[in-house]
Specification:
Length: 146
């Protein structure tokens, strides 16, 4: 059970996910500060109260008036989109480029059918050797004819 858990934790996906969570949390703080200090006041300039989070919709009820904080929802949506854009352009896109470069450098390995017999492999070796050294073709044929 411990061995299985260790294998699970050491998988690349789990480690990638852990790194993404930590970096995402760090970016969230930066992006939240930018959204709250720059973007929300900019949008708030078009809201009568001057503060986006103060923008509410009052719905009268039987006993009291309900206030829905539409500005807080819009602010959270802007914050989410900003974090998503930062993570995409600063993490996902560069990592994709790195992986594409690595896969371009990796040698291409031809798939060999799994049902090859020993004789098939030896025939392929013989054929490859005969292609590389045309003068030795007679010696190979003479040895296989015996």
């Amino acid at each position: 059970m411990i061995k299985g858990f260790k294998e699970f934790i050491m998988q690349g996906n789990v480690i990638d996910l852990a790194v993404a969570v930590v970096i995402g949390a760090a970016f969230t703080g930066i992006v939240t500060a930018i959204v709250e200090s720059f973007i929300n006041p900019l949008i708030g300039a078009f809201v009568p109260s001057g503060d986006l989070s103060a923008w509410t919709i009052d719905i009268p009820g039987i006993f009291a008036t309900a206030k829905f904080g539409i500005g807080a929802i819009i602010s959270a949506a802007i914050n989410f989109l900003a974090v998503a854009l930062v993570v995409y352009f600063f993490l996902v896109v560069p990592m994709k480029r790195v992986k594409d470069r690595q896969s371009a450098k990796a040698p291409v390995v031809e798939d060999v059918p799994s049902e090859l017999t020993e004789q098939d492999v030896l025939i392929q070796i013989r054929d490859l050797l005969s292609q590389q050294a045309p003068g030795s073709r007679r010696a190979l044929r003479a040895s296989t004819d015996q």
